[in-house]
Amino acid sequence: xxxxxxxxxxxxxxxxxxxxxxxxxxxxxxxxxxxxxxxxxxxxxxxxxxxxxxxxxxxxxxxxxxxxxxxxxxxxxxxxxxxxxxxxxxxxxxxxxxxxxxxxxxxxxxxxxxxxxxxxxxxxxxxxxxxxxxxxxxxxxxxxxxxxxxxxxxxxxxxxxxxxxxxxxxxxxxxxxxxxxxxxxxxxxxxxxxxxxxxxxxxxxxxxxxxxxxxxxxxxxxxxxxxxxxxxxxxxxxxxxxxxxxxxxxxxxxxxxxxxxxxxxxxxxxxxxxxxxxxxxxxxxxxxxxxxxxxxxxxxxxxxxxxxxxxxxxxxxxxxxxxxxxxxxxxxxxxxxxxxxxxxxxxxxxxxxxxxxxxxxxxxxxxxxxxxxxxxxxxxxxxxxxxxxxxxxxxxxxxxxxxxxxxxx
Length: 409
Fold this sequence. Notes:
Mean pLDDT: 95
CATH topology of the largest domain: Molybdenum Cofactor Biosythetic Enzyme, Chain A
Largest sheet: 6 strands, mixed
Strand content: 25-35%
CATH superfamily of the largest domain: MoaB/Mog-like domain
Number of helices: 14
Oligomer: single chain
CATH class of the largest domain: Alpha Beta
Structural class: alpha/beta
Helix content: 25-40%
């Protein structure tokens, strides 16, 4: 079964609010083996809602709609559904009685406008809402089943679980997702290594997404049940990991910083950081998860040259001779940090994050990453594209990836 999820509201189309309902519903549907083929957001305009409902009903067997069931003039979903169905709105007395009773229990006066919430297209079924004043709606348009629920998340969630899900019947299948995270290779390079697995007609399906330098490989498997789907996904995930090798650093909710921390924890080793252009971002990511004190001793944000000299023992002459953004200074920062904090490992970053400060010899985005460890010190030169925030984030991720590679050697 294919499904389309529609979210109604000017606050969503204007960007004033973020639509979380669609993501929640999509996960619920995929647990039942129902494939979501589209999410659409529509403003509070009746003609637009009518057109979108009709179009969705022509494309999918199941249409879930959230929002626009309130009592005000801009809540037009029930009217739009009636128009799409070619039906008139009729009063549902039991729903009106339930709304009136809810107001009485809350000690509030019911405005006349709330009466509209008890109206439904002729032929539609009302779905009870025990935690709000807006009943939901169940209807049929052509071959599609349509369910309309409130936009308030907790009302929508309860209505789906109690009213909608039982009407969908027992799950006929299950879809299981698995994500493998990589760093150190471009999205096109990753795709080239797993190209044959990315056949869109295959099961499981495989795709990639990129963010902040991390390329994630997404595996989605359709099975007779959750166990069957999980087995299919596991086999493909194993093949993805085999082909991609060392660029894989984790799965699902794993982060690169957490992967580094786990390696250090397993080896009983410690880490310190020396940061310049990243301004403490490496230390921040390392300490986002509880338990970082097991391996992370601390860090120095040596933004000024004087701080590099006094806190990390970087010789002034070295900075004058080579410049602060240079291989020798990155090495000295890492070695000084390791010595000062007494850690097994130290990672350093010095670079030009921009937007100014670059030159032909040393452009904006030039970053040197140093790693000092038990076997010595190494420094890598990088040039990262993009604005300041992108350079800082890529520098941070590259520093963690470089450190991880050094640890696992």
